């Protein structure tokens, strides 16, 4: 399997090189040159696999022999040994036609661990094999940073710097990042919001000289390997709730910010998993809801919400979807992205909008409804949803049709977002790993929200 850019000027890149390149060198995003196809017979063979076996079966299609199977197996087993349940991503039934796919049983209690535990292992593998130094740089709306730091702290030959928007992540998210005191970790607390952090990261990665000089590597979902790792649980969940030969219509409802996790679902569907609809759930930062319902992609005023990990206006993975919805037309992707840079919006025609709407439904969940959903499920089913997962469930209730079954992705543990839970008048008990955080020492560097100030910090840190 080779990888190519959505903008057409990078192609023929192998798996490890795609992993290390992160953002494509032409400013686009990397995608596999062909999406691997999984037949119905193959799907049925995968049905009974354990989680890590399923990971291996799917990754083999993308790694294409670049990592020997035995070594890949070890990487996968070490990655998922850190999870608190052997099922890794268990499925729970909430009511007749609604299931939750719990993705928060990893070390930092959010779904980002599913991909980042593996990427941590893979960076180590590359650093050891090649003797290369690797400097990781990422922006976070809260969970990616915590998860990447957990996966890479103390690792030989690797340094990691994470930008987070000052005061705009939850208390637990901040503590999970800043209480890690290993020398190879730098937390920059940036004045501004997540979009500012993400834009500056993209600028740094687009500066190829800077990227090469400092051996920068990306952990954000601009890295295709993250998407690949997230496709696995769509398959896993599907097998848990269907019987062989099932013709039930299965939707997935996905709380969305950067269009990463839902794009993984789209990729699973394109690989051959019979997903009916992908329901895109947003909060009040609803650029993606407006795109799907109206065909216009245009950022609006940034809002702080109860689900801070989805407080994103410009979704970095959206370009990957544009590539597929244009029929893999790199010229059209380039022209859309240029339009976006110049006019601040992308407008698609009605034929393309029809394709979008055949694949996706969307619903933007207002703050009030998010809290009501948390309270309602807590009372009726005794299940405490975190505010992101509540957006997924609320959108599922709005968008799922009769006789359809929806699997809603539970992307975080409620203990990470007690700010919202306590507004519902609910007092939760915290897992030990979270309760202990507030007694720990913190370290972070405050920095102005401009590229020059951040570049200075990076040069000092990476050396
Ligand atoms: C990152 C995150 C999301 C959004 O995921 P994307 O891949 O950015 O769409 C949703 N919920 C939680 C808890 C997250 O951490």
From TrEMBL:
The keyword Mitochondrion does not apply. This is Threonine synthase. Its cofactor is pyridoxal 5'-phosphate. InterPro entries: Ser/Thr_deHydtase_PyrdxlP-BS, Thr_synth_N, Thr_synth_N_sf, Thr_synthase-like, Threonine_Synthase, TrpB-like_PALP, TrpB-like_PALP_sf. It holds the Pfam family THR4_C. The keyword Ion transport does not apply. It comes from the Bacteria. It catalyses: O-phospho-L-homoserine + H2O = L-threonine + phosphate. The gene is thrC. Its EC number is 4.2.3.1. Pathway: Amino-acid biosynthesis; L-threonine biosynthesis; L-threonine from L-aspartate: step 5/5. Gene3D superfamilies: 3.40.50.1100, Threonine synthase, N-terminal domain. Belongs to the threonine synthase family. Keywords: Amino-acid biosynthesis, Lyase, Pyridoxal phosphate, Threonine biosynthesis. GO terms for molecular function: threonine synthase activity. Residues 92-351 form the Tryptophan synthase beta chain-like PALP domain.
């Amino acid at each position: 399997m080779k990888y190519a850019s959505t903008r057409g000027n990078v192609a023929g890149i192998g798996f490890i090189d795609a992993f290390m390149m992160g953002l494509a060198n032409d400013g686009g995003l990397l995608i596999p040159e062909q999406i691997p196809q999984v037949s119905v017979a193959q799907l049925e063979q995968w049905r009974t696999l354990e989680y890590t076996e399923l990971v291996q079966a799917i990754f083999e299609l993308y790694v294409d022999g670049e990592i020997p199977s035995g070594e890949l197996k070890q990487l996968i087993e070490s990655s998922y040994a850190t999870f608190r349940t052997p099922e890794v991503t268990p499925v729970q039934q909430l009511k007749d036609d609604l299931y939750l796919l719990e993705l928060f049983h990893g070390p930092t209690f959010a779904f980002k661990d599913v991909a980042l535990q593996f990427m941590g292992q893979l960076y180590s593998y590359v650093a050891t094999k090649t003797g290369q130094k690797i400097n990781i740089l990422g922006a976070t709306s809260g969970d990616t940073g915590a998860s990447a730091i957990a996966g890479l702290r103390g690792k030989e030959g690797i340094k990691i710097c994470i930008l987070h928007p000052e005061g705009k992540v939850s208390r637990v998210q901040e503590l999970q990042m800043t209480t890690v005191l290993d020398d190879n970790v730098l937390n920059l607390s940036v004045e501004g919001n997540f979009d500012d952090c993400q834009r500056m990261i993209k600028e740094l990665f687009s500066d190829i000289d800077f990227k090469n000089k400092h051996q920068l590597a990306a952990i954000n979902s601009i890295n295709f390997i993250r998407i690949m790792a997230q496709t696995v649980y769509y398959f896993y969940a599907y097998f848990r709730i269907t019987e062989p030969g099932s013709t039930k219509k299965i939707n997935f409802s996905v709380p969305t910010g950067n269009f990463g996790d839902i794009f993984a679902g789209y990729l699973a569907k394109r690989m051959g998993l019979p997903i009916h609809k992908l329901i895109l759930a947003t909060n009040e930062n609803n650029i993606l809801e407006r795109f799907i319902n109206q065909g216009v992609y245009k950022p609006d005023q940034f809002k702080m919400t109860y689900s801070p990990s989805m407080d994103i206006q410009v979704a970095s993975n959206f370009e990957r979807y544009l590539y597929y919805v244009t029929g893999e037309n790199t010229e059209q992707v380039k022209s859309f992205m240029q339009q976006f840079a110049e006019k601040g919006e992308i407008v698609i025609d009605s034929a393309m909008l029809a394709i979008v709407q055949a694949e996706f439904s969307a619903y933007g969940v207002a703050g009030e409804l998010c809290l009501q959903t948390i309270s309602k499920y807590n009372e009726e089913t005794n299940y405490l949803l975190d505010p992101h997962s509540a957006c997924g469930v609320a959108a599922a209730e709005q968008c799922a049709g009769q006789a359809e079954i929806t699997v809603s992705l539970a992307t975080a543990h409620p203990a990470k977002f007690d700010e919202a839970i306590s507004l519902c008048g609910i007092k939760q008990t915290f897992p030990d790993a979270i309760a202990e955080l507030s007694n720990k020492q913190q370290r972070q560097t405050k920095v102005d929200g401009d590229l020059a100030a951040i570049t200075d910090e990076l040069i000092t840190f990476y050396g």
